[in-house]
Write a structure and sequence with these properties.
The protein has 108 residues and is α+β, with helices and mostly antiparallel strands. It contains four helices and four strands. It has one domain: Alpha-Beta Plaits (2-Layer Sandwich), CATH 3.30.70. The longest helix is centred in the last third of the chain and has 9 residues. It is an enzyme of class 1 (oxidoreductase).
């Protein structure tokens, strides 16, 4: 699988609306046949920073994603809302999706 983590720092005046603005992009990406997950979170330390964790079944699925109309549309409007160039980690992994954490499980 292709695993991608992207850290976005948003201009303060747009931070509160960011998750609403990416809603259509998120929904469309989650509906792609090769998408495994596409999940947003907000930093507890910086209210203007969001992290996107995403994964695709293969490099081909990732390429289809970046060539999709919804990706191109998002890339067209996002520059107005971001404060800095997003930071990215992009790696290919043998596993498919999430694994259970070996060091921790619920009691009882």
């Amino acid at each position: 699988m292709i695993f991608i983590a992207v850290r976005f720092t948003i201009r303060p005046e747009y931070s509160e609306e960011w998750l609403n603005r990416v809603q259509d992009f998120t929904r469309a990406t989650r509906n792609e046949p090769g998408n495994l997950f596409f999940d947003w979170s907000r930093s507890v330390d910086n209210p203007h920073q969001f992290v996107l964790l995403e994964a695709f079944e293969s490099a081909e699925a990732g390429a289809e994603h970046v060539n999709s109309e919804h990706f191109k549309t998002a890339m067209a409007w996002m520059p107005e809302l971001i404060a800095t160039t997003p930071e990215i980690i992009n790696v290919e992994l043998e596993q498919r999706g999430w694994s259970a954490m070996a060091e921790l499980s619920p009691r009882g």
